[in-house]
Structures are given as structure tokens and as C-alpha cells.
Structures
1.
Amino acid sequence: MTKLKDRIERRKGRVRGHLRLAAGDRKRLSVFRSSKHIYAQLIDDEEGATVVSASSLEKATLEKEGLKTGASVAAAKAVGKLIAERAREKGIKDVIFDRGSYLYHGRVKALADAAREAGLNF
């Protein structure tokens, strides 16, 4: 089991290392995916603070889209749209995408695509 955790941590470290080099002054769009929900937040690394967040835990998100669970691609798309709307309200257009240790596939990809369609640039 420790080998799996080590691989996950190494992958996460590689992704974060590349992001630090490429980020500049852009905010970081970080994604966390659990078995039941998906979460996204825009982080200002200079201040170490979360600027905007959205998740499939918010009842308004699921009810608006008519979803039963937060563990679907449709829920990830809804969260992507929501995070982009909230970022635009704060005046943020350009971000850098932090997938963490997750592969860019499935729900993570759906969230990223929906955020791009809603107006975020990355």
C-alpha cells in the first residue's frame, strides 16, 4: 500500500512543481475528487488563501442541474460552470489548472472543459 501512496505523492509533486514554474501571477484552479463528490477552488498562492470555491455538495448546484449524485460527469460539469461564474464575478479570467494526483480524464476533464466553456482561460 505504501508504494501506491508514494506514486500518488510523486505524481502530485511533479504536477505542482511544473505549475509553480508556469503559473506566474495566475491563480491556481485546484480539483479534489472523492468517491461521492467533486470540489474545485481557486487559490492565490502568494497569499496562501482560497479566493473562490465550488463543490457538488452545494444543494443548489445539484438541484439546478437535476442531479441525484455528486459523483458523476454531469455534476463535475455543473461545478466547472459554477467555479467559472464565481471567478468572473471576482474579476479572474486567467488561471492555471492543478489536477493534483488525478489523471486528466473523466470527471476531472469534464470540470476543466466546463470551466473553459464558461470563460476561464487555462
2.
Amino acid sequence: MIETAGWKDALEHLITLLAPFAPHISEELWSRLGQETSVHLQSWPEYDPSALEQNTVTMAVQVNGKVRAEIEVAKDADKAAILEVAKAESNVAKYLQEGELKREIVVPGKLVNLVVK
């Protein structure tokens, strides 16, 4: 029924969390997963803070103060790498060709602002 161990683990946690609110259907779903004991005898799932960590961030790219694109870069990317990705974005490149790039402002994890005159 379940193709991977990850899915089965996720469903078991979901059913365990659902059990106090919908005990009868939770018990039925629990038995269909092939479990022998009651879902109500299971321990509460443990909190895993590492599951919430993200390796990338989404940043807004502005040209002359107007948002022109959003980019996704590594969380620990340096200024040069962020600017390279921002300038490669097609909608941003279009505006950069219209004039001379005067200033590059990078707020890591938040935004990139390119000033063109």
C-alpha cells in the first residue's frame, strides 16, 4: 500500500496526531497501515528542529527601487554570488541594458537593489 518508508512514517505521525480528535477513524487507518496495537498507545511524535532548516532563501531583486524578479540562492551565499544570480535573471537583465549600473545594494537574505542611470 505505502511505497516508501518515509511516507509510512509520515502517515503514522499524522494518524497519531489525529487520534485525539477523531479516535475511531484514526484507529481504522492505523490498523490499515498494518499496526497491531492501538494508535492511542503510541507516544507523541518528537519535535525535530533540523527538519525546519532551509538551505536556500528567496530574495527580491529590485531595479531602481521596483521589484523586477525573485531569486533563490544558497542561505550562506556571498555578495558576488547573489549579484551574479540576480543579474542573470531575464527581467533584470533587460533593465540593466537600458543604462549604466551605478550602484549595487545587497542585503543578505532579504533583497538586491540595482541602481541604473
3.
Amino acid sequence: MNSSEISRMAILEIEKRRLAAENQALNRKAEITAKLPQLAEIERALTQTASELTKAIISGKGGSSAEFAKIRNNSLQAQEMIRKILVSNGYPEDYLETKYICPDCADTGFTENGRCKCFKALIKEISAKELNRTANMPYADFEHFRPDYYSGVVIDGVDCHEKMSQTLNFCIQYAANFSPISESILMIGRTGTGKTHLSLSIAKRVMEMGYTVVYGSVVNFLASIEKEHFGRATDDSDTMSILLDCDLLILDDLGSEHHTAFYESTLYNIINSRINMGKPVIISCNLSGEELSAVYNERIVSRLTCTYTILPFYGKDIRQQKMLEKGNYR
């Protein structure tokens, strides 16, 4: 889905909101007219007053300040009378007003300064969902993470079942207590030990709490940013903006990308910018600490090892076992 399609989706959503708000207002007006017919006469008088004021302004004739003041005063009195009648009959005084989701633009997507902030937020929300579209969210949850798959596995003297049970509990608590200023996490371990599954489980829970989450592989994100940077993209997407703006960014499979100067500087920019903004990132990586230091420059390694919580994953590659069960651990 390119940016034009995303914009169309946002426009349709804004239009849907506006029509819903206006239909609700019409339904409330019909209800009040039926229950309180005296308001209908006041409404007609108010409409007539507004019409007279508009004609006077447009024509420029007979529009002395005294006449304008009289028309305006009549209008204010009628509005006040309507509010009092509503309240005396158990309704809120603003019951007949149209309740738009965004009062700044009245659900049009535009203000006098251009695109409304609600429209921009909707664009980012739709874009984030599009980036997450390929993630296997339905099957990635904490309930499907099975520590018993690690039972009896001891590697370098480490009881993998015990350690992975602790890791699961850590991730559950992290998701439950998540905020846009939560700590960042670096998940390190061999392929097939559950890093992607638990990071997606966190993503799913955090999204259910109403936060924006962007999940994807480092390879795909860097490739998209490169195309946009060098003008080879087929649309005007802004992947970097989406990665920096979301509440939680999850970068999967760090170390699988090609190592170019552009990729390394871009990766550093993402990591460093979110640190400076105090925004959390979860990164999964199949590299060991030594391999990480050998592959990336000191600036990247320093920020990952000094500002991220290191979460080791233990165990053997259990992907083949997981394919036999519901869920896809990676």
C-alpha cells in the first residue's frame, strides 16, 4: 500500500467520522423536536435571525451597528432559551450541538493552517498498521509461549527452562507496565529460542493498550529508507518518520542486513534518536556480544550495551517442534 492509498483511507475515515457525528446530531434534533415541540419554533426563529444577519452582512445595506447588535442579541437570547429548556427537561445544554471527534477541524481533516493534527495522526496510525501487516500477530501471544520446550536443556551450565521462564515473566511484566518512556531491550540468543515470539507478544499486548507499535525486520526497514533517501521509492512514504514517531519500535533480526556505510549510519540514527527522545525500542539479535562488537561500530555497540536492558535467550533451535503446534516461534 503506497502513501496515496494510505491518504485515501485516512480521508475516508475522517469523512466517516464527520457523517457519523452529523447523523447523531440530526437524530438528537428529531428526538427533541418530537418531545419538546416548543423548541422547534425557537429553532425557526433562530434560523430566521441568522438569515437576516447574513443578508445584512452580504448586502452591506441597513447594517448599522445598532441593527447588528439587535440581531445578535436576539440570537443569543434564543440560544440561551434553548439551553434552559433542554436542562429543565433533563438534557445536557449542548445536546443539540454536533459532537465531532476533533473539534479543531470538525472532522474535515483541515484547519486554517492546513492539514489537521488529527489527520496526520491517522496517517501515522494507518501507516504503522500497514508496516505491521506481515507480522504473525494472531499466533504470537504469551499464552502460546511454552517454557516446557526448554525442559532438560542445559547449555554451558545454564538451566534453559529456568532462565526462559524468567524471561517470559520479564516480558509479561514489561508489557503490562509499558509506557512511552519504558526501557529499551536487546534480546540476544541463538536462532529459534523465542525472541521474535516474545517481542511480538509484547507488541500485541501494548497495541491492545492503545499505544502505537511498529514491528519489522531491520533489513526491510533499512531497504525502505534507502529507496526513499535515494529517490527510488514508488511513492512518497516516510519510513524514518514512522519509526521515530511510534510509541514502541521493534526491530527484528539485527545483524542480518548488509553492512554498508549508509545502513550503519541510518541504524545509528534510529537508535540514537529514540534514545534522545526517551522512546523505547526492542531489538532482537542472533549475534553474541562479541559478534555484535565485531560487526558494528563502537557508537552503535556502546548505545546498545549501555542504554538497553540485555535480555539473553537460552536453548536450542526449537523451530521444528513449534511448527507442530499452534504458533510460530522464531
4.
Amino acid sequence: MLLPETLNKHDKNRYQFHYIYFIPWKYQMVEAIEKEGGRVTCLSAKNNIRILLKARQIASYVRKNNIELIHCHLPWAGIVGRLVGKMTGVPVVYTEHNTWERYHKLTYYLNKISFPGQEKVIAVSEDVANSIRKHYHKKKPDVRVVSNGINTEKYSTAHEMGRDIRKELNIPDRSTVIGITCVFRKQKRLDIWLDIASELHKKHPDTFFIIVGDGVLKKEIHEKAQSLKMEKYLHFAGLQSETRPYLQAMNIFMMTSGFEGLPIALLEAMSMGCTPACTAAGGIPELVNDNQNGILVPVEDPILLVSRLSEYLQQPGRLKVLAESARETVTTSFSLQKMVSELETIYDEILN
């Protein structure tokens, strides 16, 4: 989602943007990127080793299209991007989204070994930047924190969404809806998320839950929900290219992650007026302050969200205050325009 959003704000009189992706079924954002003027190419590679084998093809694309700067996201794209940079002489910038402690050993070492082959590194949070500095002690490349940002004008309840998700799902207007938008992967700990939801519903029967997303753990998560008999109050919305109507239906955005960078989905939810209730994973504490603009519990004790949320569910006025503060936090410090301006400054430093 971040790619078309940032492209909308970039100065396209100064930059032309090309996008290469590798996993064929990750095509959901292609239309949105092309609509904003980006050129998108899929070089099909179904695993990480095959991504590396695409280096010559990427290098050919870079030369053919006179690419002057390569910007990579995620470790294996970063590894192959640095290799392409060496082959073509084109400078490379890389955005690190996660802490190094969380990477598979092979990913960790290949990322570290190839790390000098780039001009700049962007960390999405101070937590991520500190992780890089802990494991990589050389002075170059320079590590710069550029916090993720979102389009706070777009992610606002002031817009007419064209869909009433509560009505579609037969959720009463006065009920509290707790939800999440995410990829179904291990780090999100959706099994724990379901346990918390189940316990909250026992205490507060007028509470409903929505999970938007998909992923490799889909079967396990659905089976867990069935074992907890949640079908009457939990809704799986599947993968959605437009999440705003779902966020508008939610009162609370709950995350039980074991680790994070600085989650775009959380920024979007807060901008839409959802109260965040999260584990203090990664860069989340840089965004959410407990009892000020949301609810935070330790990563190692996510089940505390049951008691913390139960307390707030009995005081909806307090929840509303947190939601308003959450929206203000994002509009003040995590806007998309701020992020894009900082990115363009880095691009200019490298190119000029």
C-alpha cells in the first residue's frame, strides 16, 4: 500500500519510478501503482534463491531503462539489488523494515555481507536503526531513520466510503468492533489474537471482531477460530485492496505481534480514528504511548490486553479520547508528505 501512496506525493517532474516485484501472486497493488504513473514489472521468482538468479535480468532492465538509483525493500530484494548495483555501477539505497535479530541465519549473513554495497540505509524506526548498529559496526553505509508515513487526508473518517461494513456483517451500530488488517504470518501471533478476542467476548458479549488479510497461516488461523467457536462474532474479510471501510467499522485496532518495524497498517488505523491496543513490539512504542493515545502491553505478556481492554470497554468515553489522540499523533508526526520529503532529500544527496 505504501508504494502507490508515496508515488502520489513524489515530484514526478524530477523522478520517474519503475517497480520490480518477484512473487507473481503479490499483484494486488500493480493497478494502483500504474494509475499513479509507475511502471511495474514482475520477474517471477518463487523463492529467495531464484530472486538472486534474477540479478542479470534486473541489471539488463536497469541499463535498458537508464535507471540512476535503485531503492530496495526487504532483505532478499536488498541483497540482489546490491549485486545489481555492483554489476551496473548504479547506486543503491535500502529500506530496512525489521530488526536483524528476527531474520533467518542465511538471510542475516547474506544481508550483512552485502551491506557495504549501498550508499544509504533507511530504517523505518529508531528500534530498527539500533538493531542495525548493534549487528553492523562499520560507519558506511550511513543509516538514516525515516519513519513510515501515510496519507492522513485519505485515511480519514471525513470521507464517504461507499460501504457500510457493519451493515454488511449485521453488526449493531452500538457494538464495539475490534479488528486488524495484516498478513497471516507467524510474527503477528494471530493465534494469541484469537485467544484474546475469545476471552473478551466472554466478558463483553456485545463485542465483535474483524480480521482483514490473508497469508500462509490462513488454514491454521481459521481452524483455531473454529475450535474456539467464534463464527457468530468473528468475521474474516480476506485480502482487501481497500481497507478503509473496514477500519471505519472498527473502534479498536488490536495487534499482538512478537516483532515489528513501524507498521503501516497501525498508522492507517490510527489515522482512521481507531484506538490502538498493541504489544510494545519494535517501533510501536515510538508511535503509541500507553494511556495517552492507545494501550500498550509487554510483548511477552499479550494476554494482558484482555484486562486492559475490558477496563476501557466499560468506559467508552475514555476510548474515544484515546482515538482522537491517536489520530492527532499520526497527522502531526507521521504524514506521508513528511516521509516523501525526507526520501527525496536522500535521493538528491546520492544523485547530486
